Amino acid sequence: MSVVPAGVVTAEVLPGSALSVAEEIGDAVELGPRVRLWPSLAAVYRAQLSRARVARIPLLFVATFQSVGIMILMRGVVDGGGEARAVVAGASVLVVACVALNLLAQYFGHLRSSGGLDHYATLPVPPAAVVLGAAGAYASFTVPGTVATAVFGCVLFGLPMAHLWVLVAVIPLAGAALAGLGAALGLLAPRPELATLLGQLGMSAALLLGVLPADRLPTVVQYGRDLLPSTYGVEAFARTFGAHPDWTFVLGDLAVCAGVGVASLAVATWAYRRAAVR
């Protein structure tokens, strides 16, 4: 006669329902519905906005004062006309470049080197929500500085303010394009120091190629200017200072800026997936 150890229940005494549950242990069980993108994006955006509020506001003032200082220096060289429009538009978008491109490259570079990506990898949020949420939070801080720079530039160069409302489209579109580029640079850089360097170089390119009038640049440099994501936001904003803006060209520049923004954010999402699995 076999002896059954204490605490062990034989299969004969298990009810039918318990047996069926035991047989299905190895089967795949759906734990819950898949997390949707937009609720995850909103949650990451609020978290990043709260985190960056204290640390980034002083840097936003620095970016604004930098753009204002550049316009004051250019005032001694540029009197008005198309060159003044280019300076004011470029200096305004430069605030976006400083925060969305430079600081976001540093942030993701530090996040990758410190293991912070492991934290996000454990959260039930899509990779796109992490990239878009962080990019949106950083770009949001550029709104007051960009508006203040544009108003100051209009007063300084005597430009009309009737169409400053176009910044409602220029800031998010240029911010998305530059933030996607900054995130990709930070995630692809092997070291945080290199991410910081790439962010600084990107901001310098936005400064030189965005603020300086295009017709004063060498032809080869003008081709490089066309590759800069923020160029089309600058062009769209500069066109609105005319007496009778050609809105077809303005919308065309904004559409190109939007397309570049989608592409750069897609590259940043791919870079996040690549960095998170390493």
Report on the structure:
Mean pLDDT is 82; it is low at 7-14 and 16-32. Helices cover 74% and strands 0% of the residues. It is elongated. It is mainly alpha-helical. Helix 5 crosses helix 7.
Chart the SSEs and their pairings:
Blueprint: H1 16-23, H2 37-75, H3 81-113, H4 116-122, H5 127-140, H6 142-157, H7 167-188, H8 192-211, H9 219-227, H10 231-239, H11 247-276
Helix pairs in contact: 2-3, 2-5, 2-6, 3-5, 3-6, 3-7, 3-8, 3-10, 5-7, 5-11, 7-8, 7-10, 7-11, 10-11
Key phrases:
single chain; mainly alpha; 11 helices
The rounded Rg comes to: 26 Å
Given the C-alpha coordinates, what overall shape results?
elongated
Strand content: under 5%
Q: Which secondary-structure class do the elements indicate? A: mainly alpha
Order of helices and strands: HHHHHHHHHHH
Put simply, the count of helices is 11
Q: N- to C-terminal separation?
A: 57 Å
Stretches where pLDDT is under 50 for at least 5 consecutive residues are: 7-14, 16-32
> What's the story with the biggest beta sheet?
none
List how many beta strands DSSP finds.
0
Mean pLDDT score, rounded? 82
- In helices, the fraction of residues equals over 70%
Summarize the structure.
This protein has helices at 16-23, 37-75, 81-113, 116-122, 127-140, 142-157, 167-188, 192-211, 219-227, 231-239, 247-276.
